[in-house]
Design brief:
The structure is a single chain. This protein is globular. The chain has one domain. It contains 10 helices and 2 strands, in the order ααααβααααβαα. Helix 5 packs antiparallel against helix 8. By secondary structure, the chain is mostly helical.
Length: 304
């Protein structure tokens, strides 16, 4: 039986309690949100610069090897930057990256998303909406792995570990869930083939799912596994659009069918079936988080 380890919500609150107005302003959760981003900004800028200017100009096998190396290096640098923020600004350990149950949590998220994607592909194949046309070289999976593990990690760091945690610390879990869900959903409005409806579909399906999954453990591993696996299998394996973007995957499919099932050109995130499944799973995880006393009240409703 899978046994998860849970951080307590208040363990992630700032440990600084200033007496003057400047200190109180710095420790205000919304102020700390921007301070945290300032710690991460140089790493993000350097990562994009290296990716754009150096790696793209190299041939194989150096391109693939350096992309993996770049991903590992900047993963470590993001961890160092965030740990520096929690150490110097909040005076606490970055328990969000505690590795005590890294493998089971990441693995659980990975299996959950893989299962839903495989279920949807099987359903669409049964209905005649998904057909395999041909295959690309398995080498494409190395590129997709790097793209999705860094992309999913960065998004979860920003939207859940920073945005949700700091909004929640001030305004409570319910408002934190709503804010991170809305921002996450509409952050994709500029994607290819995105519309107001596709962003709303992300809000409905992912708001509770990712917010509650982070609430439950108070670490990044479960939500990272969910996010990475979804992108990797949806696009990297089965060649379907991913949040509106269409890149080659291992399989070259032919997809025809009603958009309420296939999600159309946005991907199965916009499928009514997927939205309902993830919404229900999100509610179940949220109930578990509440049972584990992970619900945080707003500052004006609790003693601080």
């Amino acid at each position: 039986m899978l046994k998860l380890y849970y951080n307590k919500s208040d363990e992630l609150f700032t440990k600084v309690f200033p007496q003057n107005q400047i200190g109180k302003f710095i420790q205000f959760p919304i102020t700390r949100l921007f301070i945290a981003l300032l710690f991460l900004l140089p790493v993000s800028f350097l990562a994009n610069l290296v990716g754009l200017e150096l790696i793209k100009s190299l041939g194989e096998p150096y391109y693939t090897l350096l992309r993996y190396l770049r991903g590992i290096i900047f993963f470590v640098l993001f961890l160092i930057a965030y740990r520096s923020y929690t150490n110097y600004v909040e005076k606490r350990k970055a328990l969000e990256f505690n590795t005590k149950s890294l493998i089971p949590e990441f693995g659980l998220g990975f299996i959950m998303s893989m299962s839903i994607v495989c279920f949807m592909v099987a359903l669409m194949m049964l209905l005649g909406y998904y057909k395999i046309d041909s295959f690309n070289s398995p080498k494409i999976l190395t590129d997709r792995t790097v793209v999705y593990y860094m992309g999913s990690f960065t998004e979860e760091l920003l939207f859940r570990v920073i945005l949700f945690k700091l909004v929640e610390e001030f305004a409570g879990s319910w408002i934190g869930i709503a804010v991170q869900g809305l921002v996450f959903g509409f952050a994709h409005i500029g994607n290819e083939n995105a519309t107001i409806l596709t962003s709303l579909s992300l809000v409905v399906s992912d708001t509770i799912l990712f917010g509650a999954a982070y609430m439950l453990t108070r670490r990044i591993w479960l939500i990272w596994g969910l996010h990475f696996s979804w992108n990797f299998f949806q696009e990297g394996i089965f060649g379907m659009p991913n949040s509106g973007f269409q890149r080659d995957g291992l399989i070259k499919p032919i997809i025809n069918g009603p958009e309420w099932i296939t999600g159309g050109r946005f991907g199965i995130e916009a499928s009514i079936i997927v939205i309902v499944i993830w919404f229900i799973i999100g509610l179940l995880i949220l109930r578990k988080a509440i049972e584990k006393k992970q619900l945080v009240l707003a500052t004006w409703k609790r003693k601080i």
